[in-house]
Amino acid sequence: MDTQLEVIEQAKTRLLDLAFQFGPKVLAALLILVAGVMVGRWVGNMMSSMLERMELDITIRLLLVRIVRLVVLVLFAIMALQNLGIELLPLIAGLGIAGAGVALAMQGVLGNLAAGLTIIFTRPYRVGEYISIVDEEGEVKLITLFSTTLLHPDLSKVMIPNRRIVGEILHNFGQMRQIDAVVGVAYDSDLDRTIRVVREVLAANPRVLHTPEPLIAVTALGDSCIELCVRPWVKVPDYTAAAGEIRQAIIEAFRAQGVAIPLPQREIRLLERAA
Question: Are 227 and 182 in contact (CB under 8 A)?
Fold first, then answer.
């Protein structure tokens, strides 16, 4: 029993000695880290305001702000380690060896990171633009170092790893899309009058942009009708709604103006056999 009490007393004494020896250093290191977080936020906010005044792209702005905050935090972490008396050279060597192993295990993540940096600095697309790539399409809502988030017209979101984007064929619609509607009219229709009716329909729709000018032209001569292509420009968010509105308005205007929309017809002739 006395031996156990002696061991406990020795442990308490040892802990007190360690607390008096390293406690102030640990507390100082923690204070340095807290100060690093606060200074990093302050420097990041200041830099964000400066870059915003420069009208820099939001994706590059966020990346630079994060890098600055990380650099500030690393500097304060080094100061905290030095305050604890830790030798940094052996630590850096160990981190290098561990980093090589981690890099081999995280090739996919690093591939996304490299692709994300490529996208951010080459800027093949920006937030707010409508793109089509790797069998997906949608409005770009967010670009990060690892993925790109697209918003579908049905309000669902698709996250594409950046490594799947770099090197693929990318169709960037920008912030406008062109509706492709085809209307058939009878061969005996007055084409000038018909095109004028279509122009009036487009001019009455508030979603249709006046610049670029809508394209209305004869695109094909079908078996039973003349096909007109109607291609107005609209903003990306208005594409689906405007396409339906324009087609409905054209049908109603043709009915009101007496423009015939013929149905497919076939002429069948019955030949009598000679007796």
Answer: yes
What would you report as the CA-atom Rg of the chain, rounded to the nearest whole angstrom?
34
- The pLDDT of residue 2: 56
Alpha-carbon distance of 63 to 48, in angstroms, equals 10
pTM for the model: 0.57
* Residue 197 pLDDT: 92
pLDDT tens digit sequence for 83-96: 666 665 665 655 56
Closest CA to 30 of 90, 71, 74, 80: 80
Query: Which backbone phi and psi does 212 adopt, to 5 degrees?
Result: -65, 160
pLDDT in tens, 180-211: 999 989 888 889 999 999 999 999 999 999 88
Tokens of 231: 């291609």
Hey, how many other C-beta atoms are within 10 angstroms of the C-beta on 183? 21
DSSP letters along 3-43, please?
HHHHHHHHHHHHHHHHHHHHHHHHHHHHHHHHHHHHHHHHH
Instruction: For residue 140, give the 3-state DSSP assignment.
Output: strand
Task: Report how far residue 182's alpha carbon sits from residue 36's, in angstroms, rounded to the nearest whole number.
Answer: 63
Q: Quick count: other Cβ atoms within 10 Å of Cβ 140?
A: 19
Write down the pLDDT at residue 57: 63
Residue 186 near residue 260 (C-beta atoms within 8 A) = yes
Domains and CATH numbers, the chain: 2-86 (1.10.287), 123-174 (2.30.30.60), 176-257 (3.30.70.100)
- At 151-163, the pLDDT tens digits run 887 788 999 888 8
Question: 106-139 burial, b for 16+ CB within 10 Å, e for fewer?
Answer: eeeeebbbebbebbbeeeebeeeebbebeeeebb
Contact between residue 159 and residue 147 where contact means Cβ atoms under 8 Å apart: yes
